[in-house]
Design brief:
Structural class: mainly alpha
Number of domains: 1
Shape: globular
Order of helices and strands: HHHHHHH
Helix content: over 70%
CATH class: Mainly Alpha
Radius of gyration: 17 Å
Largest sheet: none
Length: about 170
């Protein structure tokens, strides 16, 4: 395997940035601005280390996204207190935006999970990685991936089954 050259890295970012942004978006709990920042930060760090990355950089970038997301939320939780809208208006008739609303609801539910659990679910189900690949990306065992997946799916089911609060 050879080092990643500038042109190879540019091609990688050009062709895979949309998929990587989707992963970052889900890791950031549906915050597009935070996802863009996260992806940019990770790509900058990977670019600086591109000579050390052998072969396909995508698994390395996905692992870096998951880890940077967990670190970002860990540090952010010490400084910023987020508040939610308790009395949001319910939409009248659902049209084509229903799918958008459903995806947003899933992204928001993912955002309530702990960062590591969220990373496991995103890598397993949205990026379609195997248990072994997810474990390798996160630096943990497959048993951890299995348990985090089970607990995470249970929590998502509970969150998504709760009726929306009317105000």
């Amino acid at each position: 395997m050879t080092d990643i050259e500038d042109t190879d890295f540019t091609d990688f970012v050009t062709h895979r940035s949309t998929s990587l942004l989707r992963t970052a978006y889900l890791l950031c709990g549906g915050d597009r601005g935070a996802a863009e920042d996260l992806l940019q930060d990770v790509l900058e760090r990977v670019y600086a280390r591109r000579k050390r990355v052998k072969g396909n950089p995508e698994p390395y970038v996905r692992a870096a996204l998951a880890n940077a997301s967990a670190n970002r939320w860990r540090h952010r939780s010490r400084r910023v207190t987020e508040t939610t809208l308790e009395h949001a208006a319910e939409p009248g008739v659902r049209g084509h935006e229903g799918g958008v609303a459903d995806r947003d609801q899933i992204a928001r539910a993912l955002g309530t999970l702990p960062p590591r659990m969220r990373a496991v679910l995103v890598l397993r189900y949205f990026d379609d990685l195997s248990e072994a690949d997810t474990a390798a990306a996160l630096g943990c065992g497959t048993g951890t991936v299995k348990s985090q997946t089970s607990r995470g799916l249970d929590r998502l089911r509970a969150l998504l089954a709760e009726p929306a609060t009317k105000g």
